[in-house]
Amino acid sequence: MSSITSRRFSLVFLAITLLTFLAASSAPTPLYHLYQEGLHFSSGTLTLIFGVYALSLLMALLTVGSLSDHLGRKPVIFVALVLEMIAMLLFINADSVAWLIAARTLQGFATGMATAVLGAALLDIDRQQGPLVNSLTPLLGMACGAMGSSLLVEFAPLPTQLVYGALFALMLVQGVYVWRLPESVSRIPGALASLRPTLHVPSQARRALWLSLPVDIAVWAMGGFYLSLAPSLVRAATGSTSNLVGGALVAVLTLSGALMIFSLRHQPADKVLRLGARLLAMGVALILVAVHTGSLTLFFFATLIAGSGFGAGFLGALRSVVPLALPHERAGLMSAFYVLSYLAFCLPTLLAGNLTRSFGLIATTDGYGAVLIVLALGALIGLNLQDAGRRRATSRS
To answer: Taxonomically, which superkingdom (predicted)?
Structure first.
């Protein structure tokens, strides 16, 4: 096998492995209502099960995110696969809320570890295609996991076990094959020191970060809400009992986001960020209309618009901030950016889950959506004011 063919095969294998981890992360979403019915827990508990996943993933990014720079890519990928396989076994045998929390916690840590090491390995192999694969694969993986899980729940036996068994088998094959890959980095000392969490935002990037942060928070908060409560919300608003609907909504959200990232990858960052803010505000507003009219068709159309806003907002925020860092500052800035993103992914969702106990799911959704719209429009106003200030400064000079 030529070196070019070997490199391409390694790129495909790593992309599929990353896709598998993210598919596993969204696979429980269509099953949440089954867990709720079988184990009799509230929406607040549901968001807790979801939230521990995101917090655990965040902890992995902060601690073991750079471990593969010291130990090599292959052993860290293998450990992440082993941890994820253990999480799949916990899901298969889950008969209580405690088991689900344990499974999601371990899964979150494994996914955080895998996201860091597989992302680095993809960049090692192909610095041209690696960034694009890193951007698209997580969204495609979440779409595959949610839709695949929905199909199995609807048409196959053992609805809360079969999907995890299939993922376990796929990861087992990947765990065996990963040792055949060429190692892309050599071992260097400092593995223990690398476990110490560090965050740094360079001074020249702080203004751009603050301007883009409201959009980034809004898109990730919407993503967290959708991946945890969207299936329950659709059932409550429309009366639909199909297991396919929840997974299909997540697939529409993530696939439209991936398509938007691919379509806008060469556009200026500020233009993309503005487009993301507009689409997100419009999409969330339409989702609220769908909730109160009970229209399933409008739900899907609104999700398509909101998902496009998710992709554009995330890409625009990322590209507005990261290029401002010097080479030795990028790792710290990326860590800070993802910490803020994942906090927005889980903390607002946890709050929403608790509020449903007092106000109900529909009223909580109204308040949650209103906050997201205000964040998106506020960011848009801030960006427009920044542009107006630049034009005035240019005209004076």
So the answer is: Bacteria
